[in-house]
Amino acid sequence: MAFPHRLDAPELPDFSMLKRLARDQLIYLLEQLPGKKDLFIEADLMSPLDRIANVSILKQHEVDKLYKVENKPALSSNEQLCFLVRPRIKNMRYIANLVNADKLAGRIRKYKVILTPQKFYACEMVLEEEGIYGDVSCDEWAFSLLPLDVDLLSMELPEFFRDYFLEGDQRWINTVAQALHLLSTLYGPFPNCYGIGRCAKMSYDLWRKLEEEEDGETKGRRPEIGHIFLLDRDMDFVTALCSQVVYEGLVDDTFRIKCGSVDFGPEVTSSDKSLKVLLNAEDKVFNEIRNEHFSNVFGFLSQKARNLQAQYDRRRGMDIKQMKNFVSQELKGLKQEHRLLSLHIGACESIMKKKTKQDFQELIKTEHALLEGFNIRESTNYIEEHIDRQVSPIESLRLMCLLSITENGLIPKDYRSLKTQYLQSYGPEHLLTFSNLRRAGLLTEQAPGDTLTAVENKVSKLVTDKAAGKITDAFSSLAKRSNFRAISKKLNLIPRVDGEYDLKVPRDMAYVFSGAYVPLSCRIIEQVLERRGWQGLDEVVRLLNCSEFAFTDMAKEDKASSESLRLILVVFLGGCTFSEISALRFLGREKGYRFIFLTTAITNSARLMEAMSEVKA
């Protein structure tokens, strides 16, 4: 299919309906405890809840006081307690201790537990073991899709990455399938589905099962979204491990964007207090710079400041009537823009200060050398120096992982030397982290004779029939080789550039990494959409160790409008970075597509490393 050339972008579906649905369901659950009640909320649910139902909405439904679920005794005097928590064992124990303390004191109250996004049997088992199953009522709040922006939905499940890709825990797959089912009920059906990865395949199969059970709900409807693409995070760790250089990615790396908003400290606001700022398309200044390479942002902001000043200066020659119009219609907008402009200029200055201190240029140079496979010795020395100077345990770990994945595992001598230096520099408590990284295939050691062909020969000797694909994980860990170099060559991820790469007028998706590297995840999506499936990508799929987990499902396209076929929903299982979002937005603009993103959570290199770390910061 030839791409349409720079057509007007298709309209996005209105995702505010998801917020309304979640709010109505929560209110319905709260109303089941009529009268005044205190609400206990788990810390990491506070930000998402605030985006769905703020305090005033909760107060309208007779929520009296709000408490944080934490390790100290609750001092609530209310007769009705409601708990809004994630389905975790420790939360159940917390609730059990509270209820049992009341029983001991001879206090009778009503308790309601609301688990989100779903209720697990294990949680009810704990309540039963603790002897309070009959005293509390347990409900599920199926809130798994939070619209963070016009084109970005997040499940706000940061633990998905560790649970699935490290522990092999599959419980969240049902949550993903339910979320996809909800989307297809509201905006579906989706005529074309593509996916790659074990988790993607499992989520897809379960979602299809749910669709079959409720057959007929989306039959005969016209699809709003033409394509859906499911992708596992472990298909592409490299992109997530790189330093981000687009503005939104840098803000996330520097200040941490949490649930769509960021806390700018006094160094940004140039006052003595911090400010919480919502970063989305409604912030007109941010919307114009979010996908830009950082080197263009200052120029853009100063131009914007000059334009703003010119608009303010217009009032000098006005008569009374014009002045009245100016004050009533334009002034408020200009003031708002002025406020946002000074915030983003402050953020840029703060980022510059931090990056200059870290010697960011040198770091980026090393990353690019690793991606291209040049000067590996020099890069290894740089990483050693990074560890010895104790720059940051997370940063050093990230660079080691990048070296390991791009080099298909470290040679034993380097692995042992880097690991020893790391443990001596940052402390032996990091030992377990290395075991985790190895299990996840992020930091591995090449065993002698552990070339892939040797492994394949061993496997084929052992088993000659179809079961070869099902040999236990002992072999899957051997096969967790990244083959990054081969994939990079096949998909042309390192652009050949004559002369300087112009970051002001990007020519391809590589601009999100200063023109040095096209994100692998985005390239896969681009190629599959271009070919309408995996034909001709067999070698790439094999190198990704995903021969059994690449799938395509095309419906007869009789109902899909050409408008809907230019809308693509990309589902990242295990997290997605702002750089990937910027790269795909660029691709969309180039090819007349519009991408919508659904991710289990927003991630970046630091979050990835923290998820694997056994040493809590």
From TrEMBL:
Family stated for the protein in its record: Belongs to the STXBP/unc-18/SEC1 family.
Swiss-Prot/TrEMBL keywords: Acetylation, Cytoplasmic vesicle, Endosome, Lysosome, Membrane, Phosphoprotein, Protein transport, Transport
Pfam entry (one): Sec1
Protein topology in the membrane: Peripheral membrane protein
One GO BP annotation of this record: vesicle-mediated transport
Gene: Vps33b
Cellular localisation: Cytoplasmic vesicle, Clathrin-coated vesicle; Early endosome; Late endosome membrane; Lysosome membrane
Name of the molecule in the record: Vacuolar protein sorting-associated protein 33B
Gene3D superfamilies associated with the record: 1.25.40.850, 3.40.50.1910, 3.40.50.2060, Syntaxin Binding Protein 1, Chain A, domain 2 (3.90.830.10)
Coiled coil: none
A GO-annotated cellular component: early endosome
